[in-house]
């Protein structure tokens, strides 16, 4: 598994259910990986797993990531992709617990914990997503929700050396709305300093990040990088965020 402490910033692209072979060829040309400026930043491109083979060996110095993995290792689970298969296909990171998987596909904190254990067992770095809904934020429940999500979905054998946490307020994903910089730093500080066994984990912010706001968000003391959805589908936009 990759030691993540050596990186200054971690910048994850989440393509979600987007892409095609044609798209990938154009993306790689525009991204021009060899011209990325800051080698201390860790760039991770999370694509649909059917396209991994089109990216393997062509992303260096960036890494390949998945968007979910099965709770199961093998067997009669039609449509699933196991952590072992992700590893076999050269995937080094994997997003788990994304709010779209939690809300649309009913994944629980307990599911996310099993997935994280499967990934760790296969030497894949988990990127565990957490975050509150707008209603929860309005009821001042953000810290309670996050505390519960982290306590239940981060496995006991996780360490800050190889597990990443992404704080993604659900109301900020794909909406163009983001919390104030102060709010982001405050929540990240809470996660880093006030949750037992999670001290000093790398914490990414996700939710409507683009090349205009990435740098001020990443400059915050308690932010270690960003998870980018929509904007990461534009290679030049992702490159600007990587270089910001
Ligand atoms: C995401 O997919 O996790 C995300 C943060 O999306 P967006 O950047 O489009 O808000």
Can you describe what's shown?
It contains ten helices and eight strands. It has a single domain (9-242), classed as Aldolase class I (TIM Barrel). Strands 1-2-3-4-5-6-7-8 form an eight-stranded parallel β-barrel, surrounded by four helices. The protein has 244 residues and is α/β, with parallel strands linked by helices. Bound molecules: phosphoenolpyruvate. The site of phosphoenolpyruvate has 15 residues, from strand 8. Phosphoenolpyruvate binds at residues 14, 16, 98, 168, 173-174, 206-209, 227-231.
What does the largest sheet look like?
Answer: 8 strands, parallel, barrel
Tally of helical segments: 10
CATH third-level topology: TIM Barrel
Choose one word for the global shape.
globular
Order of helices and strands: EHEHEHEHHEHHEHEHEH
Binned strand content: 15-25%
Any guess at the CATH architecture? Answer: Alpha-Beta Barrel
Supply the CATH class. Alpha Beta
- N-end to C-end Cα span: 26 Å
The percent of residues in helical segments reads: 25-40%
Oligomer: single chain
Q: In the residues, how many domains can be counted?
A: 1
What is the C-alpha radius of gyration, as a whole number of Å?
Answer: 17 Å
List each distinct ligand once.
phosphoenolpyruvate
Helices and strands, with pairings:
Elements: E1 9-14, H1 21-31, E2 41-46, H2 52-55, E3 63-66, H3 83-88, E4 93-96, H4 99-105, H5 109-121, E5 125-130, H6 134-138, H7 142-153, E6 164-167, H8 181-194, E7 202-206, H9 214-218, E8 225-228, H10 235-243
Parallel strand pairs: 1-2, 1-8, 2-3, 3-4, 4-5, 5-6, 6-7, 7-8
Residues 14, 16, 98, 168, 173-174, 206-209, 227-231 line the site of phosphoenolpyruvate (PEP).
């Amino acid at each position: 598994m990759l030691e993540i402490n050596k990186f200054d910033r971690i910048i994850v692209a989440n393509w979600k259910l987007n892409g095609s072979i044609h798209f990938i060829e154009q993306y790689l040309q525009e991204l021009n990986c060899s011209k990325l400026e800051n080698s201390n930043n860790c760039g991770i491109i999370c694509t649909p797993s059917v396209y991994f083979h089109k990216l393997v060996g062509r992303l260096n110095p960036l890494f390949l990531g998945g968007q979910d993995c099965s709770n199961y290792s093998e067997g009669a689970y039609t449509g699933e992709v196991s952590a072992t298969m992700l590893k076999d296909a050269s995937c080094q990171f994997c997003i788990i617990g994304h709010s779209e998987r939690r809300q649309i596909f009913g994944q629980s904190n307990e599911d996310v914990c099993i997935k994280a254990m499967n990934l760790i067992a296969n030497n894949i770095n988990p990127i565990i997503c957490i975050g509150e809904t707008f209603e929860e934020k309005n009821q001042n429940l953000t810290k309670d929700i996050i505390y519960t999500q982290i306590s239940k979905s981060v496995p006991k054998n996780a360490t800050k050396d190889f597990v990443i946490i992404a704080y993604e307020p659900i109301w900020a994903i794909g909406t163009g709305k983001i919390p104030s910089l102060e709010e982001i730093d405050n929540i990240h500080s809470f996660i880093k300093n006030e949750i037992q066994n999670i001290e000093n984990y790398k914490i990414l912010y996700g939710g409507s990040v683009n090349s205009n706001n990435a740098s001020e968000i990443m400059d915050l003391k308690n932010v270690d990088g960003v998870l980018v959805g929509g904007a990461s589908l534009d290679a030049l936009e992702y490159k600007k965020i990587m270089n910001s």
